[in-house]
Amino acid sequence: MKKDIKAAYILAVFMIVSGVGFLFTSASEGESQVGVAPINPDFLKYMESKSAQGSEYGYRYGYVPSPVTLSHIKGTVDPAVNVEYPAYYNLQDYQRVPLVKDQRSYPTCWIFAAYSSLESCLLPEEARDFSEWHLANTHGFDYDVYGAGNSWMTTAYLIRWGGPVDEWLVPYPQKSGAPAPQGSFPPAKHVQQVIFLPERTGPLDNNTIKYFLVNYGAVDFAMYWDFNTYNYGTSSQYRPGDHSQNHRLAIAGWDDHYPAENFNIKPPGNGAFIARNSWGTRWGINGYCYISYYDMSLEEFTCFNNAKPVNNYDSIYQHDPLGWTSSWGKRDSWGANVFTAVDTRPLTAVGFYTNDANARYEIYVYKNVNNTNSNDPNDHNPHSGTLAAAKTGNFIYAGYYTVQLDTPVPLEIGETFSVVVRFINPNYRFAVPLEIPIDRHSSGAAANPGESYVSRDGIQWDDVTGLMPDANVCIKAYTEFPPVHISLQGKRNVLRAWIIRREYGEISFTIEDTPGLSLSHVVLLRKIDFGDYHELQQIPINELSNGKYTYEDYYLDGMGNCTYQVKAYDSSGRIAGKSSEITI
User: Fold this and answer.
1) Is 41 within the bounds of a domain?
2) Is the dihedral angle over the CA atoms 52, 301, 97, 286 positive or is it negative?
């Protein structure tokens, strides 16, 4: 009976994904053939059983495999990781890991593990607390707050700027049955990069993980957790054999000499990772445990090491809010997205996934693209316009990356432009990451004709929706603030009155006249040391004198370094420009 269920499900997914012209193909078929990557077998197995979101002894798991897999990438892909490491290393000793939390009755370990990495990579300079509850309710996939998730889902949410949201805005509930958050909340950071580490080739193949721990922070991972093999006395876990994952944690360190005798089942040798769990500080060793190097269920190592201030880019063009759920093509294939400019903000960066180690890319940006709905195939050419920018490069690790263009590309309102990427993989057959609808996982994925294109050679192009309904290529475009010039100056002054001495800041700015742009107001922002910007004052544009304004900040007295920035807004409420930062 189970075989029949699984076969029926595979057929159903095939019918949903294959569309008109796409066929699932195996990685062993000829390089010249294009096709859609096979669905991750672990995902199919999970969908058949739906067992991985369960609980034991009152503790919840919360992991669902992704339909895509990177199991083809194994071992060391960067020789730089092969250096001498200490026998013992613990991020806790360097204040580089956040406080342990408790997921309570919700299967949200996947979020806590991801945010362990994201927050850890900001420490010790910047201590942040991001809202797991917001991600659990707004990720956009087919699972509710009791339905589990994975690092691909977290990545999709973060790189579309759905979050992270600050914890104080959407706090995690203390009890089950909590309502979903109401309203919209601004992201506290812009995540521009997520790195998927290669799988281990054996129990002692740990240099890549150690490298990321030392240089970035905690590493999110999946494993099979079994309380039957957990040692409560030593807070250690080892289970021999190969098992499907059911839980996500974060690696915070290692101990090469951790005794094999400390495990309920003795592994072949010493050594363990120090893992941060999400079951509260009363569990384990203040919320931590040891996991043997020899536990080979550990997989899907992910590092969220690139949370940037939200003023890095102003806006984002995208067709793939659910991110990477499938792959298409051959080793050397092309993908493109066509967008229509909604304002004059210049295009300055491009974002996309890579799904192989040491993958190369070529980026081309075209303006005034011909994108009509005629039957002439030449009209469906994302590089039919004028080439405005190009860039090439490579990435060692699979992941999501943002590439800054060498020069900004100016855009006009209503202009059609395209971002074309050539994906060149050394090994993996299906080079172009796609967002596709998959029943009970990403069924909300949607697409329109004229948005995304694929090509085997960069010459003949196919609209993705003609091959696979509601599919899009995973390419994003980022714009910066438009060129409204704002000059900003600042200095510290001292106010003396009798025996009183008080420091204050004198902040002056000038906005140059911008013909054709109707400005409404400007906002003066301030942050202290490594904190976030906060609004200091909102100034109507008519209060400026010949475009100039001076503000005296008496909050400076006794404070550390203060950094200021000015943003100008147009009559529609959109940011029309920003100044550079000054620190006094």
Assistant:
1) no
2) positive
